[in-house]
Write a structure and sequence with these properties.
three-stranded mixed sheet
Length: 388
């Protein structure tokens, strides 16, 4: 029987005796270096906490002045205002509260229109046979609509005048949400204009929205004059320029997000007061900035960052491309329904195109359920081509 050898430092099992430790003289510690490092560290900490206010003091650091410190020191954490604390508590509780289960979940279709809806006949075809799975709400800001479909009869809410570009547009959106939220069965909310049309049948739209794990709210960074150029420092401290966003107003949102919009007073008041045409010499359009900025601040992971309503800004004019009867073809509509990349065009020089794949519940899907802007003269061709 072999006896295992004890392993020892050496070669091939041979034991070697290591020489004894040598006597080393104590290290001469560079006291002056330690003191210098400590002094510089203390100096920088004090400069960070109590930043120099004079130009002379700033130039002690660099000819670039005080900016040299802010370039690499982390930004100080500011103390939240009472309003922000209250807002965050409300937002957290709403998002953490499980959605109310409905035995009959519905989509609320909310039409923001000056008067009668030119595509009511097309929408009637879209809704037909799906009673109990949708609700209709109409905000007519100029004249009482004349209806041709029973689905739209007596569906007007209390409306107020709306001016394009004014904050009254945001108020109209919130008013529609408030009326639609009164029905506990409404679980998803769609904002549409009088020039909007559906691109798919009702079942497709219902399943796309009701089974989505997000709200479809448009949101992107536009560094140009019609994006961040509209930002006002008077929104500080609650809204910083780095959080300012832009997006189309035509949204769809889950019930929890609709409740957040209703509960918000903090960011609503900032945009009401400081984002309006010609305020502070800027032409801020609140319906393009309020909701994108609000959701970027309170629940950025809960929105898709694109709208499911197709709008063509490729002509790069003040208004999107509009469609006449001769423009409406089968190929045009088929193209709309096959697009799976959304495009944002910034307002800076040259207009940068920002492309984003449309990801639905982790899977790339076609982006659009609706489209605008169609002239009333296109109705007959749309009825024939869509044929719901």
């Amino acid at each position: 029987m072999k006896v295992a050898k004890e392993w020892r430092l050496g070669s091939m099992g041979d034991t070697k005796i290591l020489p004894g430790s040598r006597h080393r003289s104590p290290l001469k510690r560079p006291i002056w270096i330690i003191l210098m490092v400590s002094f510089v560290s203390l100096f920088l900490v004090c400069a960070y906490i109590y930043p120099p206010n004079s130009d002379v003091a700033c130039y002690v650091f660099s000819s670039r002045g005080c900016k040299v410190l802010t370039d690499w020191l982390p930004p100080p954490k500011r103390e939240l205002t009472d309003e922000e604390i209250i807002s965050r508590v409300v937002v957290r509780d709403i998002l953490d509260t499980p959605p109310v289960e409905s035995k009959n979940p519905k989509i609320a279709f909310m039409f923001l229109t000056p008067g009668s809806l030119p595509f009511e006949k097309l929408w009637d075809m879209f809704f037909r046979g799906n009673e109990g799975r949708f609700s209709v709400y109409i905000h007519a800001s100029k004249e009482k609509p004349v209806h041709v479909s029973p689905y739209f009869l007596n569906r007007e809410i209390h409306s107020s005048p709306v001016t394009w570009g004014a904050f009254s547009m945001v108020d109209a959106e919130r008013r529609l949400l408030a009326y639609a939220l009164k029905d506990p069965d409404n679980q998803h909310f769609v904002l549409l204009s009088d020039s909007c049309i559906p691109l798919h049948n009702f079942d497709y739209v219902y399943n796309y929205l009701m089974h989505a794990n997000m709200s479809f709210i448009d949101c992107f960074v536009d560094p140009g004059p019609h994006g961040n150029g509209r930002y006002s420092t008077r929104m500080l401290p609650e809204v910083e320029e780095k959080d300012f966003r832009k997006g189309a107003q035509w949204f769809t949102m889950r019930r929890q997000h609709a409740l957040l919009v209703m509960a918000d007073s903090l960011y609503y008041s900032r945009f009401r007061d400081y984002c309006r045409p010609y305020a502070d010499g800027k032409n801020c359009i609140a319906d393009e900035h309020y909701l994108p900025t609000f959701f970027n601040l309170v629940d950025p992971g809960g929105i898709a960052n694109w709208s499911v309503t197709r709008v063509d800004w490729s002509e790069r004019k003040w208004h999107p491309k509009s469609y006449r009867a001769q423009d409406v073809t089968y190929d045009l509509l088929r193209n709309f329904t096959s697009i799976d990349m959304t495009t944002h065009i910034t307002s800076n020089a040259g207009g940068e195109e920002l492309l984003q794949p449309c990801i639905w519940n982790g899977t790339r899907r076609p982006c659009y359920l609706f489209a605008r802007k169609f002239y009333p003269e296109t109705l007959d061709k749309l009825v024939t081509l869509l044929n719901f």
